[in-house]
Structure prediction request, 325 residues.
Amino acid sequence: MLNFQYKFIIQGDEMEEIVQNRIYKIVISQVNTKEPTVNIYYLKKENILIDAGPDNKAYFTVIESELKKFGKTIDELNAVILTHHHTDHIGMLKYFPSKTRVVGDKDINKFISDSGKYQLLNYLKMSELVQTQYFFDIKDKMMLEYSSLDDKFEIEDYRNVHLNNINFIKLSGHSTTDVCIEVKDLNVLFTGDLLLQGVYFNSIVEFDCNTKGFNTTLSSEYEKTLDVIRKSDYSLYFPAHGDSITDIKKIIDINYKRLSKNKRKFLKIMDHPMSVVEVTDRLFSTFIRFSMFLPFSYTYQLLQSMLQEGEIVYENGFYRVNENV
Ligand SMILES: [Zn+2]
Prediction:
């Protein structure tokens, strides 16, 4: 019988045991305290870390001393598995020894290289966004997701990696590099940023080095992911931010409702051909006061999904309702 301990977990300087003698969690606060705290998990039996957290040397020291309690050192870790490439989940990697085995989607390598950054910058300068007042906000937020790790690591593609008791499950919709991790004998799933409590915007706009444009499929992938997770039957779900989740159906249904409500709203306000910036502006003016990036991402990805479903059409930078439907 598994003995799950439910504890109220405060952010602190030690690892909290969340599945008895098996899974430990450390909650890390970001430098900008308005940003959400980030979880790193330690699988004791497998001797694996899930995610590496934001760039914060102090927390790296904490992880080192916490591992010591289990008689382990950072050098002895079997692997660090990354749920996706965003800086708040991989920034701390730069303090890890370069021989650390780092596993994740191979495309993460593009986000830790400077060449990826220059490709994105060139693309943005040519995009229609450059003419808008939001250009710098969007550009800065997008550039932030490129971590400079100075070729210290080559991320091993999870598709070619075998780790005892671990299953990699390709689910996507938050970023270009999402993967979920299952611990087989515990029947639990690490969901990265794909399943979080109380999150409004999930699909991010990212540059796709392969198509040399924005990734356009995230929102439709996210909808499929919600379907798959809703039908799944894990004992617990461990997100990369916030508390563990048991009642996934409730969270997913809220997300579904929001997606379809927003699609209907989009169709309603599009009384003339609109750019993605104009649609975002109309729908999310209150959010935009804080930052344009997330509402823009969400709107862009949702429009792409509606485009694929044929509900709207796109011409010369403008979206309009498809009257033929
Ligand atoms: Zn993320």
Observations:
- Residues 248-269 form the longest helix (22 residues).
